[in-house]
Specification:
This protein has about 180 residues and is mostly helical. It contains nine helices and two strands; from the N terminus they run αααααααββαα. It folds into two domains: about 55 residues, no CATH class; about 80 residues, no CATH class. Strands 1-2 form a two-stranded antiparallel ribbon.
């Protein structure tokens, strides 16, 4: 094909026509590869900006005071609930009057209180999950740990036993049963 193109004098002309066709096609349909490259650049720039924002975050007196205040609601809710039981036993009439007052609170206000408390505890849990130390890509907390997909030891118990030097402890997935015919 190259010899025929050269013989007819279409080598460079065909390349120029191809580039023109590509440019014309990008007028009607966007270049998907370039769009993905631009998206990746935007994502990288966004992550660098977010990282730079918290680069010099220190734990000064103000930060420690705010962290201390953030830790107060959980114990206050738990101790306050226990306090209500004590208050009900000490002054039943006063407790009943206050419960009648709580009954007068409209239902949308209870929903709002539930949403605020849920988002507060959800945000704190998310904060501690993100701040948990990671070891080798695995989350270092209690419970089940998920190994990376490219870890051959995690998916192959025989290989892990061999690496640990315990070849006799290789777990078997199937048990050999002898049938009456083979005996």
């Amino acid at each position: 094909m190259g010899l025929i193109g050269r013989a007819m004098g279409m080598g460079q002309a065909a390349g120029a026509i191809g580039e023109a066709a590509q440019g014309l096609s990008e007028v009607f349909v966007a270049n998907a590869t370039r769009a993905m490259e631009l998206d990746a650049e935007i994502h990288r720039a966004t992550m660098e900006t977010a990282g730079a924002e918290f680069q010099y975050a220190g734990s000064g007196l103000f930060d420690r005071a705010i962290n201390g205040l953030n830790r107060l609601p959980r114990p206050m809710l738990a101790l306050g609930t226990l306090g209500l039981f004590v208050y009900a036993m000490v002054d039943p009439a006063g407790f009943a009057r206050r419960m009648v007052g709580l009954e007068a609170v409209p239902e949308p206000l209870w929903w709002l209180l539930g949403a605020i408390v849920s988002f507060y505890f959800g945000a704190r849990e998310l904060h501690y999950t993100r701040a948990a130390p990671r070891v080798g890509g695995l989350l270092r907390r209690g419970g089940l740990r998920q190994a990376p997909a490219d870890d051959p030891v995690a998916v192959n118990p025989a290989l892990s036993a061999w690496r640990n030097g315990a070849a006799d402890q290789v777990p078997s997935n199937s048990t050999r049963e002898t049938s009456p015919r083979s005996q």
